[in-house]
Amino acid sequence: MSGDANNTGTSLNSVDGLPGPLASGGGSVFGSTPAEKKAAANTIETELEPNTKKATDGAKEKTSAAARTLDGWETASGLKKVTETWDQQAKMLMGRLSAEKASLRGTSGLFVQNDVRTGDDLRALAPKSKLERL
Fold this sequence. Notes:
Layout: E1 14-15, E2 18-19, H1 34-69, H2 74-125, H3 130-133
Antiparallel strand pairs: 1-2
Helix pairs in contact: 1-2
């Protein structure tokens, strides 16, 4: 670690002086607002998912058509195998996009729940005010 030899504090937002995800105004952005998470999820839903599906379906359709054209040739067999692999990979990609979208939408709610729970725990530990004791 860099820094003064007498510095025994713990730093959670950097390593060797490089800004980390918790550094305020540092290199990478750790937290984003609920609105930014919602916008990212919406982009996945309205742009990435439909455009990816369209592109993968188009490629699959053209490869399948080429395989039909070359029916009876060894190349057709290879193209059919490529189409099967492509289909599996496209399904995995669509599943990943869907999972990322769900994670983005769920994260904001989890942070709010955690904040409320922490507040409740802190209130339970705080000494009662004179008004609450009555």
